[in-house]
Amino acid sequence: MTEGVATANAALRTRRRPRWRISEHPYIWVAPLTLLLLATYVYPAVEVVRFSFTNATLLNPEYEYTLRSYQALQRNTSLGGLLWITFLFVFASVVFQLLLGLLIALALNRGVNRNLPGVSVVRIVILSSWIVPGVAAGIVWQLIFSEASYGFLNSLLRDVGLPPVKWLSRPDIAIWSAVIANIWRGTAFSMILLYAGLVIIPKSLYEAAAVDGASAWRQFWYVTLPQLRPILLINTILISIFTLNTFDLILALTGGGPGRATEVLSLYAYNLVFRNFDLANGSVIAVVLLAISVVFTFFYIRLLPKENET
Amino acid sequence: MKRSFVATLLACTVLGGTGALAQELVTADRVGDPGAPNVLTFRTNPGQSPNNPSPEQNAAFKPIWQEFAEAHPDWQVQFEFFSTDIGGEHARLLEQARAGRAPDCVSVDSFQLALFVQNGVLQPVTSFFEQEEIDDLFPFIREGITGEDGEIYAWWWGTDLRIFYRDTTVMPDAPATWDELQAAASAAAEAGKEGVLFNGGRWEGTAFDWLAHFWSQGGELVDDTGKPIFGEGDNREYMLNALTFYDELVESGAAPSRVANIATYDDFNAAAIAGTAASFIGGHWQRSQIREGMSPEQFANWEVSEIPGPTPDQRATGTGGWTVAAFSDDPAKIEMCVALMREVFMGPANEVVGDLPTRQALFDSLPRFQDEYFTQLRDYLVNGKARPGVPIYPEISNQLQIMMGEVLAQTKEPDAALTDAWNAVNEAYSRM
Known about the structure:
The structure holds 2 protein chains of 2 kinds. By secondary structure, chain A is mainly alpha-helical. Chain A contains 13 helices and no strands. Chain A has a domain at about 80-265: Orthogonal Bundle (MetI-like fold), CATH 1.10.3720. By secondary structure, chain B is of the alpha+beta class. Chain B folds into 2 domains: about 20-160 and about 320-385, D-Maltodextrin-Binding Protein, domain 2, CATH 3.40.190.10; about 160-320 and about 385-430, D-Maltodextrin-Binding Protein, domain 2 (3-Layer(aba) Sandwich). Chain B has helices at about 1-20, 55-70, 85-100, 115-120, 130-135, 140-145, 180-190, 205-215, 235-250, 265-275, 285-295, 295-300, 330-355, 360-365, 370-380, 395-410, 415-430, and strands at about 25, 30, 40-45, 75-80, 105-110, 155-165, 280-285, 300-305, 315-325, 355, 385. In chain B, helix 2 (about 55-70) links the parallel strand 3 (about 40-45) and strand 4 (about 75-80). Chain B starts with a helix and ends with a helix. The model of chain B is unreliable at about 10-20 (pLDDT under 50). The interface between A and B is large, with 41 and 47 residues.
């Protein structure tokens, strides 16, 4: 009898203290990543915002909190031009990276469907442009656009009897040269995302459209594009953020010149901090860039499929 | 069997030991025995290290590094390298120095040295040099390395200067004045050449090289307190004269419009070697570079002279160069850093890389500098002018680069471009 009571009590204690399961405590799983993100992303961003409310420079360790840098931004007569150049650079880059990325992805997808040889090689070749660091890409494109007698593009133009173009020395052309270089570099990323989107479109949709007698163009318009819509939107936002933050390619290609013809906001921020040692004003520009990126990110989050939609 | 195994083991041990003994004392990023107990970190340009990209200079440097390693068997020097973005590298270095994380010893660009001295991150090295050696320095060099307390904070071992290169088959006589250069370059352009090339893109070289034309008239960028004065009074007039001179070179076709995007001296080398340029304003070190790329016959046609001035008597040239400074406060490391200054850079490195000696006695005695070319340069150094070592200089340079780009691309008139640059610099100065 006593033995039976003891066993029952032990069973009760076991029931009262349920077994600790790590899967029921997600914070422990998430903590290392959270700490890493806080240290490498959130902390620097907070520091940038903090410095933007100071008069800090790299030349003087002492600083005080002030709104002077934001007031200086309002007085900055170059800001309008910088914003316009940045808008041109981002808008043109995004539009053409999307279009070219889509074209290449469609061609690759068609190639795979038809078992054409060499599709993988083409994919690797295109991807290589994305792997090349921005500074290296800038130097390569500088050689291509060079207006010296040995410049690649102008040599081609001369060979076909056309006059040379002032790719980098005319301000109204230089910005488009920077855009071309950036399109070359960024198209591969769009291609990869869109190709992934194309692959998952159910073949049955195309088969049904074919049965209905839809032409290739109508299949593209009524099947491919609607199915790709979420990926297209996400791609647009991602490459907009990437392009907004691009400065290394321009730094190597034109340095922002002639004059300020190719100086985008991110390069301006870099120049302020690392050339003029002006930490506070550079941080203000970085905050402006951060704000624009946050708006893009907000749209990105809204467009991401919800869990119950997947 | 057992005996042969022991013999093999012994042989391996002996050979291994010999291998360790024969371990290279000089590698691309280390000088000294890797097992040496003391380490000195030294950040520098690849060209001033065992990682020099020129095979010729690398070979000439090797015995110097070897001798240094053998003379200091308890030390190994570990190299860190600057990228080509010297301005950005120095900004990061200053931040590191403030946080106490700078390398022990660093090659500092001469015009940035004042920023480091003013921030108190360098160690004085006066006691390591004889007064005779200090007095032997060219005056602008001595001034550049001396702090307000009279201490020397670095050793400026090599200087450079800007000169005018010309192809004598196209431009037989050296132009002495702006007008003569305009006429000679226009004639060369009519003959199908690029008349004259110079830096005009967004980088330091553009402002620095062009400032020779401003300085030659007696212009000053800042006053004694470091306040910008280049946009007012006579200085404004000198600026406009120099700016209009460059504007007219491009407008007339004497200089190609592509100068608005030239942001490296390498472009001049390429054009000279390709035979497309008649002349250019470049650095004295480029002579050896174009010699490497040209046939002896072609190179014989190229001569150098002083940068033309507004009149033959008004000449100036920008002088830069590199210093070595001690950042560590460890006395042993400071001593080792000074050993580098003295045993590698003060003389031997001048011989290898061709940077001009900063001491009269070395200029007179080092074999490399005894030929006609360097004798010419020694005369030009009389008109040498260093950039002011003041905190506002980087912004002045930045605005001058923007001004030059706008004028050379013909998007702004010189007067408007100068006014914008002047206002922007004053706005920046007011925030300092």
